[in-house]
Amino acid sequence: MTGINRRSILLEGGVTAALGPPFFALAQTRMEVEMRGTSRGERTWFDPVGLAVAPGTTIRFVNRDPGNSHTATTYHPDIFDRERRIPAAAEPWDSGFLLPEKSFEVTLTAPGVYDYYCLPHEMAAMVGRLVVGRPVDRGWEGSSSKHDDISAEAFAALPAAEDILANGRIVLEERL
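-> structure tokens emitted (176 positions)
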């Protein structure tokens, strides 16, 4: 390894260490969000519930809950006539029902905040939020201020975009 290569590797590692987890998450091109549930099925959630990624990142939703089927569905008028909670330039998605160990992928290109839910478990507050890019990005669209079309419990379960950006990812603890 040459001195130049060694310095560039150290610099990249130093930048990652200095900027912390949000920079690391933004540097990835593929990320995974797991669909989880307790063994008796009394609680379900996305893990992580909040994730910051760079535009162009592919998100893979994987059902790791052996006892339930789940969906990853964006809030959008084109899908079940829901209020839009994704950037206007973004394409809405619905994974359909995923059986245990099945997955669905979507690539996010429009910067902004994407809220999504599990169709059969939204009332149990199985919701998640993806933050794509940064507020300084051209075309950035922040969180929807409306919440008439979402239950108070589901709305409260969405982590703040600022917290996601500050931490890179928000993970819920399993509650039995």
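Residues 20-170 form a domain with the Immunoglobulin-like fold (CATH 2.60.40.420).
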